[in-house]
Amino acid sequence: MKARSFLLAVVLAVVLLLGAAAALWWSMVQQSPLRLAEQPLELPRAARFVPRQSALSLHWLVDPGRLPAYAQAVAPTRQRRSAREGMEQLRDGAFALAGLDYTSELADWLGPQVSLALLEPAGAEGAMGWVLALASRDDDGARRFLQRFWQTRSLAGTDLQISRYRGIGVISGRGALLGRDPQPLATALIDDDLLLLASGRGVLEQALDGSQLDELHQLGDQELSRQLRQLGHGVALLTASPAAMETWLGFPAALSQRKDLEGLVAALVPERADLQLEGRLRFRSPVIRRSGAAELSAPLLRASGGPADALALLEKPAQLLKSDVGDPLDQWLGPILRSRLERIGSPALEVIAELDEGPLLWEHLNDGWLLGSRDGRPDDQAVDAQLKQKGLVRSNLPGESASLNVWTQLQRQRSHGKEALEAQLAVALESESGVAWWSNALEALHQRRDQKALEPRLDQLEALAADGASLQQLALAEQGARDQLQQWRPWTLLQAVAGRSLLPAVHGMAMAVSAGEAVSAGEAVSADIPAATDQAEASDTLRFRARLSFA
Fold first, then answer.
1. Element housing 23 (H / E)
2. Which of 489, 476, 488, 483 lies closest to 503 in space, CA to CA?
3. 431-454, pLDDT tens digit by residue?
4. Of the candidates 134, 136, 126, the residue with the CA atom closest to the CA atom of residue 187
């Protein structure tokens, strides 16, 4: 009996120890900064006070106090301290835009949900208004902050107006925030744990008006909720109206000014040291053509190679370069492609892109550009006819395994007081295994056979986990990513918030664009879709996924 009792005691002790260890492990997992990446994407309660017609809205769904710990956890060992400090500076700068000091005013009570909405002015003139919603971890935090907030500004000479609007207490006045000039401000406390701070009483009343009807606020938007379920998870949710897409996000006017465009919805997803943005552009009718070109592009990727610092896969470049297209994808990416061709200034490159019905693989190497297309697409005779008009002469150079076609142009060269004629290469063409390779440098054609050298760019596309229907794909190395980001307005604003340049941390960038699900049976297809396209091949959603890699 004593032996049995002792054995039972030992077993019980082991079970208790295992249970305690399991509980400790579970608690550590739940509190781990890495769990930020598993945040389910859903609208916060503050979305009730964000009008559907907001120009721009941003819902931050995780505790801002945990961001520095996450940055530290995913950074390399030697960079963990600087990563933490950089994230703290970025977070504090974001709240400083609203005139708030995170450390002294918010850190002890702010919860995991922060929402911001930008509202268009009521008339043709006037400044854009904003509403900031801050969720409290308890019932007293927001109230204490509100008391200190207005007490401080009252002592600074602010005249306060206290009233009630739709049964909610509203305090308004002109307050000087963090050394700025006095600005109109208004606040309201909802259920003791949700604070609304707005750029004026009128803006706050607009938000409170919209909260009364589900048809007016985002929390009652069933279509928005459906799109969030499709996106899955993320730490932040962004919505933008067509006008804000152009003004704030840099989308081309041809796309943003479409009357059938409803707007943009996107989620920000951290993937360890990388950031991924997954979004949807929604239209009122199915206007995006679906294509099977992704299957045709696989042989191009398998045969490609070379130390490229940029890799692009274009579904139908000839379609993208047309100026009279009605497809949203062409209106979005077409101007970007035309601008890139103009900067390079190669007549041969322009001719090939304008004649190629796709798919087309485009690499940028140190020695020049390299294009890969299906053999005979475009037809070399059609290319030759166009290049002849530009003064280029075609020659055939036989080789051991295959012949090489080159187009050259004679140029006068002067050296040591003597003139001579020199044939300058414009483009060379070689075909292998059903793929035509075009380049303005013979060395680039040779480097193409080094498939291992292209693995960094291919890995970027693979990390996107883009589906097989991606119409356009792009992967940029370090310098190319930095060049693109520094021209993008949101990145400029982000650096201003951080108070320093963020470009040195950028290691690369990749992006993929595809059509959404086909329209359901019975829906009409827009007139913008070609007549030969049936409704099963058209979609009302344009999906994109971008991934930013940090060193």
1. helix 2-31
2. 483
3. 888 889 999 888 888 888 888 999
4. 134
